[in-house]
Specification:
With 155 residues, the protein is mainly β. An eight-stranded antiparallel barrel has the order 1-2-3-4-5-6-7-8. Strand 2 and strand 3 form a beta hairpin.
């Protein structure tokens, strides 16, 4: 008789361990698989503001800026440009990823006077139709590059 009770108890415990997680997840809104992303392909326009006090006298604030992106899945390629009023740059290349509304990647290039050295980054966030990017020049030993800045772009 104790053997039957033991078997019955074990079966009840096993059934509970299987049923409880199923019932707990019944109303869950969990999504499995890769995070969905929006598509930022296309032309963007807005402003660029240079970072760093040393450049504030040489650079106009909130100059016209442009970006163009192509996207395949979460991978994003593009070019960034800002008007040449003091600290502008042209055709800076962007290589990165978009995870939901968060964009991050590396930037390089520019010129003819200011640009971004190898190892520089761009990180940002998409909020509706506004994309904000923070550009950081990680190699500040060369006198030519700007320290970075912020882009505010609209589609």
């Amino acid at each position: 008789m104790t053997t039957n009770r033991s078997r019955h108890s074990i079966l009840l415990i096993l059934a509970a361990t299987l049923i409880v997680p199923i019932l707990a997840c019944k109303n869950a809104n969990t999504v499995t698989g890769p995070a969905p992303t929006v598509n930022i392909t296309g032309a963007w326009t807005g402003t660029f503001k240079t970072a760093g006090d040393a450049f504030s006298n040489d650079c106009a604030l909130n100059v016209e800026a442009h970006a163009t992106f192509t996207q395949q899945g979460s991978l994003v390629e593009g070019t960034l440009s800002a008007a040449p009023q003091g600290c502008g740059f042209d055709a800076v290349t962007f290589h990165g990823t978009l995870d939901r509304e968060n964009l991050s990647g590396t930037i390089r290039g520019g010129g003819p006077h200011y640009g971004f050295e190898e190892g520089s980054t761009a990180t940002g966030r998409l909020s509706g139709t506004i994309l904000t990017l923070t550009l950081e020049n990680h190699n500040r030993y060369h006198p030519g590059p700007i320290p970075g800045g912020a882009m505010r772009l609209l589609r």
